[in-house]
Predict the structure.
Amino acid sequence: MTTRSLPVLAPPRRFGQTARTDAWWVQPAVTFTILASFVGYATWAAFQNAHYTFGPYLSPFYSPELFGDSPHAWFGPKPGWWPALLPFSPALLILPFPGLFRFTCYYYRGAYYKAFWADPVSCAVGEPRKSYWGERWLPLVLQNAHRFFLYVALIFILLLAWDAIKATQFEDGFGIGVGTLVLTANVVLLSGYTLGCHSLRHLVGGRKDQLSKHPVQSKCYEGCSKLNRNHMKWAWASLVSVAFSDLYVRMCAMGIWTDWRIF
Ligand code: FES
């Protein structure tokens, strides 16, 4: 009888130890920088409660404006029941929903687990901990709520599309300014990101055994799959565009930038 020896398993790597010779650290470092900058800017902007509208434009960080001082507010100014000790800003009422949609996104989870928690910092690179932090227990099991945040995100797309339409209604009538284009591009990029969501893809066709027997769902599934193939690109492009849209409206409202009217 022949005997074979099993291959010797390599000992666990130390944190950061790897045989890789490429610049594996660049991607998590860039991810960390962009996401940390975005979270920092969005938090600062949300607490400002000022300079979030300019003419027919409304910053996407403040839309929908449920309560507030601008003409875009649905239910009037800050309500009397708002606790005096809590800072008030229309953005604080709505930003958690798109924020949690992005936070629980399957793509972003992979990106920020590497960039922020080093879990692992990159493929085939040693981790700082030996235990497995799966998504089976609290708090990470809550990441599975992603599909519910998707439903809200789809409503937000409709609201932002309505804002883009309203951004053509100037005091002197219909027009298109640079701000109109900025807000419209933002809706397009956010739609590309949201409609390519893994959960939506499953929802529209992933549950069917024979998708070909359902032509409408089959077409929706195809479209969703096309966007899903570039989900990472849509994720980054829409992240930048939503922050830039707020910055654009803010700069115009503060009189630092001029909003050029195209016609
Ligand atoms: Fe990224 Fe749903 S998986 S938005």
Summary: The first strand starts at residue 53 and ends at 54. The CA atoms of residues 104 and 145 lie 8 Å apart. The mean pLDDT is 93. The chain has one domain: 26-75+88-126+135-253.
